[in-house]
Amino acid sequence: MSTVVLLVVTGLGLGALYFLIASGLSLIFGLMDVLNFAHGAFLTIGAYATWWASVYLPGAGGDGVGFLVAVAFGVAAGTLAATLVELGVIRPLYGRHREQILVTVGLSLAVPALVQAIWGADPLPFPRPELVSGTVTLLGAAIPTDRFLLIAVAALVLAGLLLFGTRTRYGLIVRAGVEDRAMVTALGIDVRKSFTLVFAIGGAAAALAGALGGLYFGVITPFQGTSLLVFAFIVVVIGGTTSTVGCAVASVAVGMVQQFANYYTVAGLGDIAVVIVLAAVLLTRQGGLAKATAGRVA
Questions:
Q1: What angle do CA 233, 230, 3 make, to 5 degrees?
Q2: Which among 130, 172, 203, 247 could disulfide-bond with 42, CB atoms 3.0 to 4.6 Å apart, if both were Cys?
Q3: How far apart, in whole angstroms, are the C-alpha atoms of residue 80 and residue 90?
Q4: DSSP for 20-73?
């Protein structure tokens, strides 16, 4: 029983991490119709900025408020990077999907290479605050505390994204702008500012995933964002490219499948099991789990 509890909570923690990454992808694609392959680069920037702040920034690092300062610095760095990418690279290419893919793929390769050139390819130990360094006993299972932190943060992000898309002026403007940009512009509304905001929010979610992913794995590497992005794309496809709720459900499913398959079979088979789930969803439910969930991405 304790093993099952451990696998369930760990799977939820991994699913929460996947959701933080995939939610930004789903938001940007659902609201802006941009397939952003550079999303993993924002995760890498967030992870390394958080690590750098915890080591070198006065007042950051350590436990409690210091760790929050380091995470806030990492999220701010990822958000700034996403904003600059949208302004300088994506904005001139709206409606030109082929060029968008080529440019973002280039960024996804260039950023990790730059990080590797500065800090090297070896994994860097990620600072772990004492508050989340221990374990919690639940039904006989000793569960790392950071799993609960990931789950809580992912739940808050999910609620925030749903509110943004359905209850805020900017979310409604972006949705209308995607459907008919000319009409919204004719009403005197600058859709470009809303698009920049959405891209920044997506970058912030990815950077937050980088910061908290360091807690989950214990280390950060230059290409960690690239590898996690693969699973984020799988989550988005399974959950539906325009559904935040579907994305959340798919994240939990992928995390659970990986954990149980890796434990009860051989190590590494969990990744294959996830691909099998992806194939099954594509063959039986075109459009992903979005058909089974209410509510589009914001």
A1: 100
A2: 203
A3: 14
A4: HHHHHHHHHHHHH----TTHHHHHHHHHHHHHHHHHHSTT-SSSTHHHHHHHHH
| Domains of the chain as residue ranges with CATH | 2-292 (1.10.3470)
> What is the residue type of 113?
A
Model confidence at 43, in pLDDT bands (50, 70, 90)?
very high
Amino acid sitting at position 135? T
Separation CA 46–CA 72 (nearest Å): 9
Rg (CA), the chain: 19
What are the backbone angles phi and psi of residue 121, rounded to the nearest 5°? -90, -15
Give the separation between CA 247 and CA 259, rounded to whole angstroms. Answer: 18
Structure tokens at 52: 């750098």
Q: Is 241 helix (H, G, I), strand (E, B) or coil?
A: coil
Comparing CA positions, the residue from 197, 40, 204, 22 lying closest to residue 112 is: 40
pLDDT tens for 124-149 read: 998 887 777 777 777 777 887 888 88
Q: With 70 as the cut, is the pLDDT of residue 184 above it?
A: no
Q: Do the beta carbons of residue 86 and residue 195 sit within 8 Å? A: yes
pTM of the complete model: 0.86
